[in-house]
Amino acid sequence: MSAMRKALLGAALAAALVACSGAGAHAVGPVAEADLAHHGHVSLWDGRLGVWLVSENHGPSDVSQATVRLAFSVPMAGGQELPPACLWSSDRVVSCRTGELRAAGAVGELALDLRTAGRPEELTVDIRTVWRDGVADRNSRNDRHRVLVLATGDPYVF
Q1: Which DSSP category does 58 fall into?
Q2: Which residues pair with 71 in a beta bridge?
Q3: How far apart are alpha carbons 81 and 52 in whole angstroms?
Q4: Architecture of domain 36-157 in CATH?
Q5: pTM for the whole structure
Q6: Residues 6+ apart with CB under 8 A from 121
Q7: Nearest CA to 129 among 72, 39, 68, 70?
Q8: Are strands 67-72 and 105-115 parallel, antiparallel or unpaired?
Q9: Per-residue pLDDT of the chain (158 residues; tens, 9 = 90+)
Q10: What are the residue boundaries of the structural domains of the chain, listed by start?
């Protein structure tokens, strides 16, 4: 095959790919958008950690399911049961399903009562959405928090 024919064939294939990509983009339609937010408080006392979390969706689209991850700076004690919607990813990470999040609505509260592996004087908790069922969230500032918690028993609000 001559160099000229190869160049023409390459150009034709490239044009076909671009045309198909454009057509496919219109067939899929717009991506659904939501604005997930997590708020609550965390308390630490005598080697116990309490987390109270509410997840909300400020819209405009509903989210059928999302996952929030709580990562702790210190390990938690082993053998602790979690609510049915949650699972241990490691001794420092818990992942929880939020359930359906309707636009402009709140979902039930998530409450965790955990024991730390020791008795830290402080720890940090990173809270963030890690999955939202393919829905875009252009305002991720309100679903990501890093909370420093002192072992005073006081609620640290996020």
Answers
A1: -
A2: 93, 126
A3: 16
A4: Sandwich (2.60)
A5: 0.79
A6: 150, 151
A7: 68
A8: unpaired
A9: 544 444 333 443 333 333 333 444 444 566 899 999 999 999 999 999 999 999 999 999 999 999 999 999 999 999 999 999 999 999 999 999 999 999 988 777 899 999 999 999 999 999 999 999 999 999 988 999 999 999 999 999 99
A10: 1-30, 36-157
